[in-house]
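hey so i finally got around to running the thing on that chain from the lab meeting. sorry it took forever, my laptop kept dying and i had to restart like 3 times. anyway pasting the input first so we r on the same page abt which one it is
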Amino acid sequence: MTKLTGRTRLLGVVGDPVAQVRAPELWSEKFGTLGIDAVCVPFHVRPDDLAAFLDGASRWRNLDGLLITVPHKGAAMRFATQLSERARRVGAVNCLKPGPGGWVADMLDGVGFVTAFENGIGPVEGRRALVIGCGGAGSAIALALADGGAAAVDVSDVDDGRASALAERTAAAGVASRPVAPLGRGYDLIVNASPAGMRGTDPVPVDLGGVGADAAVADVITDPAVTPLIEEATRRGCRVQVGAQMTDAQAGHMASFFGYREVAAVPVSSRPNGAP
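ok and heres what got predicted. didnt touch it at all, straight out
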């Protein structure tokens, strides 16, 4: 752990809630290991307070940037003066850094997911994918799968309108995409990008009936480390990817964005599939 000094740099994580996020532990450990005088801290910010928080944070001279998590990924985009093409396509951001004219933003959930999947399981090219949850993370993942050469990327959400809108954007990226019910049969990649599974009483967000061992199942949730969906997929013999693996893979991309060259140079940690 970094010893705090008057020169310590700050990296923040902004969400509501933030108790479930792994980023403060992950980043602070990396900083300490590499001898970087920086620390990652969580900020619990309610939606109504986001504008005031970002206005104040833009004046902190020792802030390197902010990681944005639920439910702020869409709202935070409005405060950025510079957006990556990824963020524009997705309509959401998950990292902000101070720039000369205001906040600079990017959306790295999708590239982080694909990096983790291809390092741990295999190529996304040619796969028939189902993405559950069409918010910021789900949108980023669906578009990244399309960019990665998936054969089809169908989407499902409790909000039918949101699912239809994402299906249209994904189809515009050149891949077959439809809004569908959360039924896993017929897909060889199933991704939960919804909050379902964060509470122990949550039902499994997709029906895995008919899903065989040739399928891969992934969850973006990091707490619990192994969700009910991952437990059921494991029982069925599927290859699985847990939220921690996506978080770890995304860290390298974020390090480059924030300018932490030493962190970006460290290879993504090799975790066995399903390890928290």
